[in-house]
Amino acid sequence: MPVEYRALIFIFIIVAIPLALFPRFAGYYSLKKEAQTWSIMWIVTTVTAFVIPNFWLFITVVGVMLIALTKNKPIYKIAAFFVLLPSMPTATVFIPGFGIVNYVMSVNFQMFLTVLLLAPLAIGKKSSNRALKTSELLLYTFFALTIISQYQATSFIHQGQVIIRDSSLTEVMRHAMSWGLIMIVPYLAISKTVKTTNDFKIIFMAIVFGIFLQACIGIAETLKGWHLYRVLNITMEMMGGTIIYLSRADMLRASASFAHPIVMGLTVAFGFGTLLYFYIDKIRNAKLMYWAVLGVFVLGLVASLSRGPWVGAALMVLTFIYTGDKFFQKFNKLALAGVFSLVILSILPGGQRIVNLIPYFDTSTESHAVSTISYRERLMEQSIKVIKKNPIFGSANYLQDPEMEKMRQGEGIIDMVNSYLAIALELGLFGLGIYLAIFVFILIKVKKSLTVLAKYPDYKEMWLQGRVLFAVLVGMLFIAFTTGRGDTSNYYTWSLVGLCIAYVNMYQREIISYYTRRTQMAE
Hints:
The chain is mainly α. The protein is about 70% helix and about 5% strand. The protein has helices spanning about 5-25, 30-50, 55-70, 75-85, 110-120, 135-150, 170-195, 195-225, 230-235, 260-275, 285-305, 305-320, 325-345, 350-355, 370-385, 400-405, 420-455, 460-480, 485-520, and strands at about 95, 105, 155-160, 160-165, 245-250, 250. The chain is globular, with a radius of gyration of 23 Å. The termini are far apart. About 45% of the residues are buried.
């Protein structure tokens, strides 16, 4: 039996029970029919990917299905985007060129979803209330900087080697198209379309559903020692985003459909933070199933063996309870639970290996966990030296600098495991300042809305959704210190920006409506 068929069968053995039970979990939140539809989408997409070895035929089948299931339903298009976003590797294929152009551009499944589901919403009618004009200006400025930087140099892969050459107009246009689909289209589509608390509930559940299934698969990968999606790169003849075998503490680091374990960890942390919204302590069965789903996310985080996302997920929980009621009481309970978990782990067979992976718990100089922390510290030191050479606008050729050559590893690569350093090196402190300003401005706006909404019991649902968005954004900004830019993480980052802006727009509309009603009643 071909390896792709064996991988497909094993995937469905893993997800059979989760797929059957998740609609029941969603039913507690009046989303059972939506979850059943998402299950169909995911099953068709996964089966088609493994059975049809042609990328173009594969996306044709998936496209027809998505058009049929989301026709004239804007919010369901965004939900379908989040359900399927993590369902395939981010490896690419080339759109053939004509005449003097070798190829038009490279595309992947995530770009296809963006064009099919989000682009029509992004270019639709203008929203009647776009509150964060300053953040929009900052976002477009950062987008322009990333495009301008491509005039300095560009890189491509040829026969397995990274080639760096002077940029051309066609390369810049390809880069602009690519980043437009990653940044601008998700931002516009989501910020224009998501308008009510029920919209947010649907989107949150879709995010949880898509990532939940990958967490299940990731857990099985670590236990089995087999990367199940790796075969798709071969059967579909895709390039880049190759899933490689990495281990830590003698355990396989799970990747699921993601190109790297740390990308899986980041994505699972994103889903973990979003799941905080669905905790209901008054419905017993919902509570039990919630803890079961939460357990899968925790084990998925562990299976990635990526410590940055572990800390980021913990920060999401702390931020979430900080923005709620009875912070110190809940924090003490959480601290006790954490200490108890560490004690249990240290007693269980093999548990000490997990404990030693927690940053700074293992101080052995020969430990791989310690060596990766040392690498990040040295990367910071060398990067600062390079940044000083081009502090304002940076340089797209920073990887060729002799100071950065000192960071080249045995695999022949310089691993930029810090998004902020990568931005500062490529776009300078000006570019990094613009990037950080986008998120700082949004955080301030969301926090301000939480402060106001906490005073009004009628807006408890909106208040809870804002707390989730605030917590996830804080956690993702921290995780960016530990991982590079690229892959699926960029889609989640800029989609989160769109969700936050949609939230502030909704908050301002509701507050204006509230005071208008009060004024009318007083008259």
